[in-house]
Write a structure and sequence with these properties.
Oligomer: single chain
CATH topology of the largest domain: Rossmann fold
Number of domains: 3
Strand order of the largest sheet: 4-3-9-10
Helix content: 40-55%
CATH class of the largest domain: Alpha Beta
Number of helices: 17
Amino acid sequence: MIKVYNTLARRLEEFTPLAPPTVGMYVCGPTVYDDCHLGHARAMVAFDVIIRWLEYRGYTVRYVRNITDIDDKIIARAAERGVSCAELAERYIAEFHRDMAKLSLREPTVEPRATAHIGAMCALVTRLWEKGLAYESGGDVYYDVGAYRGYGALSGRDISELMAGARVEVNVRKRNPLDFVLWKAAKPGEPQWPSPWGPGRPGWHIECSAMSAAYLGAAFDIHGGGQDLIFPHHENEIAQSAGSTGSIPARYWLHNAHVTVDRTKMSKSLGNFFTLKEIYRRYDPAVVRFLLLGKHYRTPIDYSDTALAEAGAALRRIGGAVSRAGAALGVQMGDEAHCPAAFETAMDEDFNSTEAMGILFSLASGINVDCDGKKAGWKDRVARNASALIHCCRVLGIGYPKGEAVRVTDAAEELDRGEVERLIEASSIGAGQVERLLRARNALRKAREFALADRIRERLQQLGYDLRDERQAGSVVRKKGD
């Protein structure tokens, strides 16, 4: 029996799909205006593992993951670069696919784009209008939150308190500050489509309500996304969909926690993000996936190069145990038809990959102990443990490249002088960025580029760090007073 933590109910619930063995699952995908960072990977890997485990348990998952290809951020970035919104979106859709393909993700059954479903969005807004839940003001169409009694159910927020304490920009067009836009009137130079209210474009929230219904129906099993989407995005989705049909669209609402840097959410607005392209230059994508699996999907992951290096070392231990088993037995290791009972128990309990990974290490340890001791029956135990280990890795989508495949590349190979200059000039930087500057300084000293290396030293000292250069280990840095 699989149990899932349902954000809507705020408790663990037995997973019972509407039409087994099929599971309908909708996950909010990217807004394509820039390269993906590790936070995006966290969400995609989290729901990939959920899909894989449902498949292991005999379900067929119809997986819908949308792409937001029209949005305020896309319009602003396209104008900044002097390209069309369509051109910008196409570029970053391709980049998203390239970055995610390296993480061994299941492909979605359907990957709808917002701009291909404008008609469905207009039809949904029309239904809300007819039910008295939408109104037009200044050319825009808004959802009337006060007219929907169930608002706040997902996030657990009280609507009266939200209205009283709403800190939003004054908008005289709205009836109350929580109302959100369903359709935006056209502005000069922006993409636009015809609608019953005049030319314009959809608001952000309406696309997911329209596309989930188009591909999964008015009622489906799982709606997923990051915790930051609970309010207002998913709250607004529920208001739109339930306002139209009379019932909440998804039975279970699942949300993954963030990736943090120094315990602060990784985000582009804070400047503390790391793109996947940057990380892939230094670490095998298998290591990135392994790191993301190491924490339960509802638990934050604090990013650091140390954490990735440790994930790489752990992955090598697993791969090394499988290789050792094959060498000891003189055969190519296969896999069994099922996972160990303890592994199944962990994954059935809200997809607890943390406990499941512990089983992997136990299997690897057992292989090594038996290969060392060679006590009675050791070959049978090694074969059994190695087969189970391989199968569990496959179920979780874990690759186990051997040895050097997961090493950190030489710092000189990854040196990005533009990035170094940006970090030197930044008013504040996090621990991960300090590590990045330190690696760059080591590479610069090795290349005898002492001027830029000295600037890094000076900047780190200004930020309160002590540097000590060691002949074998390079530079060591610590915060003054630690």
